[in-house]
């Protein structure tokens, strides 16, 4: 699955950066979520942005999902809040 989205920052007790999965792709993920989730609605995925690939889990949010971006990933690709990125995402697999 491939989509584009804007990087945003959550300033909670544990600040983090995310990209929101678009509605259509979130609906597709919901269809397979029971087969791949390991609890709390988290879905393990392999993600690629540019030349950087890593494993993580999608977080459920507002009826859809968000992709968490570690600082290490953002720095490797030179990304900042507000940048629009193209994400290649493959559900399933270990995290």
How would you explain this protein's 3D organization?
The chain is of the alpha+beta class and 95 residues long. The chain has one domain (2-91): AF2212/PG0164-like (Elongation Factor Tu (Ef-tu), domain 3). The protein contains two helices and six strands. The protein has helices spanning 23-36, 71-77, and strands at 2-10, 16-20, 43-49, 52-61, 64-69, 84-91. It has a six-stranded antiparallel β-barrel with strand order 1-2-5-4-3-6. A hairpin with a 5-residue loop joins strand 1 (2-10) and strand 2 (16-20). The longest helix is centred in the first third of the chain and has 14 residues, at 23-36. It is globular and about 35 Å long. The protein starts with a strand and ends with a strand. The model has no long low-confidence stretch (mean pLDDT 90).
Give a short synopsis of this structure.
The protein is of the alpha+beta class and 95 residues long.
